[in-house]
Amino acid sequence: KDMVIQGLNEGQYVLYNDFEVFKYYFIGGQFPMNFLVLLIRIILASYGAVIGDLAGSFLKRRFDIKSGAPFWIVDQLDF
């Protein structure tokens, strides 16, 4: 019986510890700041994707590559 209780307690500790790691490293911390940090990350990721696409299109046009043709440095991910 003691092993079962100890196992349950350790499992709860691991679950709680994983939640704390997720909360601080992916969401951004405690309540007032976490939404602000998450919003800033979303905005930066969105603008980064758009600016990256613009830079890739600019390079493709500068190197005179046809529309839709692959370019080795820009088209690394195939969606």
Characterize the structure shown.
The chain is an all-alpha fold and 79 residues long. It has one domain. The chain has helices at residues 2-27, 31-62. The termini are far apart.
Shape: elongated
Which structural class do you get from the secondary structure elements? mainly alpha
The largest pleated sheet is described as: none
Number of helices: 2
Strand content: under 5%
* Helix share bin: over 70%
Rg from alpha-carbon coordinates: 23 Å
Task: Report the strand count.
Answer: 0
Mean pLDDT: 76
| Quaternary | single chain
Terminal CA distance? 52 Å
What is the N-to-C succession of helices and strands? HH
Poorly predicted regions? none
Tell me the count of domains.
1
Provide a concise account of the structure shown.
The protein is mainly α and about 80 residues long. It has one domain.
Secondary-structure blueprint of this entry?
Layout: H1 2-27, H2 31-62
Helix pairs in contact: 1-2
Brief descriptors of the model:
elongated; 79 residues; 2 helices; membrane; transmembrane; CarS; mainly alpha; transmembrane helix
